Amino acid sequence: MAAADREVTARVILQQCLHAKLQVKPPDEHSAAEWVEIQRGMVMYVCFFKGSTQDVVPKMVNSLLNVKLSETDTGKHVSITELPGDILIVPQATLGGKAKGRCMQYHANANKELGMELYRQFISQSQQELQSHPKWAEAGTVLRYGTYGNRQVLQLDTNGPYTHLLEF
Question: In the prediction, which pLDDT does 159 show?
């Protein structure tokens, strides 16, 4: 995670959930909307900033998959891989916004090409890491993700506003 004396290059919000459904392709005149869905687990909202490099991705994956925020039935906090639970990754450029007057500006965000590449690497490395955890892989849990650069509709059921901000 980011130390107080260095620039933040990525921001993630983690939200524990009971169920989540994300529209990854809006409906059009030829097809219905496409959705991805998870059951009990965690939603990760991800934003990359200017100055981000691919070096931040493994640090993010390691921290996010191993942080003990998921609550078991007994109340113990464990990582998402230990739970095990589903994961939904949502690209969220608005996490890079800053208010200027009455408007929001997103000048700190990585450009679209860099952000898309880092997001792709983040998903790929997360999938690899999750498959290396036997308990997670054997439980039939899933990793789903949204479409970078598109506005997406999210439906979320939680058992409380259990939301955390992490910066890298």
Answer: 85
